[in-house]
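Structure (tokenized):
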């Protein structure tokens, strides 16, 4: 899937306008993706991306990003 171009290979986004997905709860990600699919959450990028996905694909994506380690903003 092309999600990683914006949200990063491990869910850490490449640019600040794209949200980090790593370590978010799978249930939160599933709801967000379903809202983009049914149009109750509007984003020009995300809405068309979700249209071809079925519930199983959405749950798989949510589970994948939820399982990635969260990025902590700790100063080195
Ligand atoms: C071209 C860049 C781009 C691509 C590709 C992309 N996204 Fe996004 N995504 C965004 C942007 C921008 C937002 C924030 C939109 C908003 O404010 O609602 C977002 C929001 C999200 C959110 C909501 C995050 C939150 O914290 O509310 C999820 C979940 C998500 N994307 C998952 C995916 C998945 C899964 C894919 C692959 C099928 C994908 N994205 C592909 C740019 C992208």
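Design, position by position:
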């Amino acid at each position: 899937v092309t999600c990683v171009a914006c949200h990063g290979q491990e869910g850490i986004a490449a640019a600040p306008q794209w949200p980090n997905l790593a370590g978010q709860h799978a249930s939160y990600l599933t709801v967000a993706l379903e809202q983009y699919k049914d149009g109750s959450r509007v984003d020009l990028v995300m809405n068309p991306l979700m249209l071809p996905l079925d519930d199983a694909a959405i749950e798989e994506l949510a589970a994948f990003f939820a399982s990635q380690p969260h990025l902590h903003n700790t100063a080195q």
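Reviewer-requested clarification: The two ends are 33 Å apart (CA to CA). The pocket of heme C is lined by residues 1-3, 5-7, 17-19, 21, 29, 32-33, 41, 43, 45-46, 49, 61 (CB under 6 Å).
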